[in-house]
């Protein structure tokens, strides 16, 4: 017996990725509902050789649903998520609406799947940058606790949605043709450029994306004292984020020990070839499930060999969003 599914936000980049991953992983379901905004209602979606009609997302959409995958924005999740729970569905939400709610589990299955047992109808999917960072950091932290983590992100247009991906392609053509650059989905020109993540800046000088990495990591690791500092930057790639991660451990650790730990870590692929300068790139991670890790080296500025640098690449739409949510849903089967 499978579950009765619903996808809220099926027309977006993550919603479309939900369908691909459910198909590829042969997710067991008895029925599936395609939900989106009123303007998308009536459009057709083909999934597993069958045509479905998109329905408008309303409070009455969930009477015959067991699991609802949400990727429709925080405000709409807060509007319709409680109705789904009241109707008996479990909501797996990709927005930031409930991530820091102490009553809502924030889950990366490779790290804290057991937290799902405490859910009260909603399970939150972490931020994409957080997931991509901590999937490889967690097995290291388990073996040798991390005291401090400094992260710099190199985030693709996909993090701002399908419209941003299309606009990046359009901007590239405009720049090459000497035309004025369109900035509708993106705040600034991204083609042949990069800029600090344009989420709202807090009084402490850090933007919301950076603080998500701090607060979400502490919650998922159940480690409120770990020191974390992040700088988040948007770069002109279509999909797959990269991150430079500097780690300070409680005890000495070597690059070879890191490679050994990561070589058997779930959700991780080591790509570390310094002789050929071959390390993870967005093109390696795009469309892939794993987070790729390379440039594993000692941080010689940290005393007693307690510092390590790594470089990671992970598909923002996939493991950073849709895949993580589907993995959560699989554990609900």
From TrEMBL:
UniProt catalytic activity: L-aspartate 4-semialdehyde + phosphate + NADP(+) = 4-phospho-L-aspartate + NADPH + H(+)
Record-annotated active site: 128, 241
Gene: asd
Family that this chain belongs to: Belongs to the aspartate-semialdehyde dehydrogenase family.
Pathway annotation from the record: Amino-acid biosynthesis; L-lysine biosynthesis via DAP pathway; (S)-tetrahydrodipicolinate from L-aspartate: step 2/4; Amino-acid biosynthesis; L-methionine biosynthesis via de novo pathway; L-homoserine from L-aspartate: step 2/3; Amino-acid biosynthesis; L-threonine biosynthesis; L-threonine from L-aspartate: step 2/5
Taxonomic lineage from the root: Bacteria, Pseudomonadati, Planctomycetota, Phycisphaerae, Sedimentisphaerales
Keyword Heme in record: no
Xref: SUPFAM superfamilies: Glyceraldehyde-3-phosphate dehydrogenase-like, C-terminal domain, NAD(P)-binding Rossmann-fold domains
Gene3D superfamilies xrefs: Dihydrodipicolinate Reductase, domain 2, NAD(P)-binding Rossmann-like Domain
Binding-site list for NADP(+): 11-14, 39-40, 158-159, 316
Complex and partners: Homodimer.
Every Semialdehyde dehydrogenase NAD-binding domain range: 4-119
Annotated Pfam families: Semialdhyde_dh, Semialdhyde_dhC
MF GO annotations: aspartate-semialdehyde dehydrogenase activity; NAD binding; NADP binding; protein dimerization activity
Binding-site residues, substrate: 155, 234
InterPro entries the record matches: Asp_semialdehyde_DH (IPR012080), Asp_semialdehyde_DH_beta (IPR005986), NAD(P)-bd_dom_sf (IPR036291), Semialdehyde_DH_NAD-bd (IPR000534), Semialdhyde_DH_dimer_dom (IPR012280)
Protein name (database record): Aspartate-semialdehyde dehydrogenase
Keyword vocabulary terms for this entry: Amino-acid biosynthesis, Diaminopimelate biosynthesis, Lysine biosynthesis, Methionine biosynthesis, NADP, Oxidoreductase, Threonine biosynthesis
Gene Ontology terms describing biological process: 'de novo' L-methionine biosynthetic process; diaminopimelate biosynthetic process; isoleucine biosynthetic process; lysine biosynthetic process via diaminopimelate; threonine biosynthetic process
EC number in record: 1.2.1.11
Key word Transcription present: no
Binding site for phosphate: 99
């Amino acid at each position: 017996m499978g579950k009765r599914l619903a996808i809220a936000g099926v027309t977006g980049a993550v919603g479309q990725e939900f369908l691909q991953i459910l198909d590829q992983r042969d997710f067991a379901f008895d029925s599936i509902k395609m939900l989106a905004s009123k303007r998308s209602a009536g459009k057709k979606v083909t999934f597993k050789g069958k045509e479905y009609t998109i329905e408008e997302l309303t409070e009455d959409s969930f009477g015959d649903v067991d699991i609802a995958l949400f990727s429709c924005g925080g405000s709409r999740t807060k509007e319709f998520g409680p109705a789904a729970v009241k109707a008996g569905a479990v909501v797996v939400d990709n927005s930031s609406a409930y991530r820091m709610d102490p009553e809502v589990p924030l889950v990366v299955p490779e790290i804290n799947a057991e937290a799902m047992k405490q859910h009260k109808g909603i399970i939150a999917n972490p931020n994409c940058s957080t997931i991509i960072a901590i999937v490889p950091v967690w097995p290291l932290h388990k073996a040798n606790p991390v005291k401090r983590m400094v992260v710099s992100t190199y985030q693709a247009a996909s993090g701002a949605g399908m419209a941003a991906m299309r606009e990046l392609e359009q901007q590239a053509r405009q720049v090459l043709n000497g035309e004025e650059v369109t900035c509708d989905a993106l705040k600034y020109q991204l083609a042949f450029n990069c800029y600090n993540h344009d989420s709202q800046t807090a009084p402490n000088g850090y933007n919301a994306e950076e603080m998500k990495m701090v607060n979400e990591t502490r919650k998922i690791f159940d480690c409120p004292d770990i020191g974390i500092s992040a700088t988040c930057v948007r770069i002109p790639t279509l999909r797959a984020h990269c991150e430079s991660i500097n780690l300070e451990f409680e005890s000495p650790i070597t690059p070879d020990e890191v490679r050994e730990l990561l070589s058997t870590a779930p959700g991780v692929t080591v790509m570390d070839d310094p002789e050929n300068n071959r390390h993870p790139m967005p093109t390696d991670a795009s469309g892939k499930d794993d987070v790729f890790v390379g440039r594993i080296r000692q941080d010689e500025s940290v005393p007693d060999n307690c510092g390590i640098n790594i470089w990671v690449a992970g598909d923002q739409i996939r493991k950073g969003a849709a895949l993580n949510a589907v993995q959560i849903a699989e554990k609900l089967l």
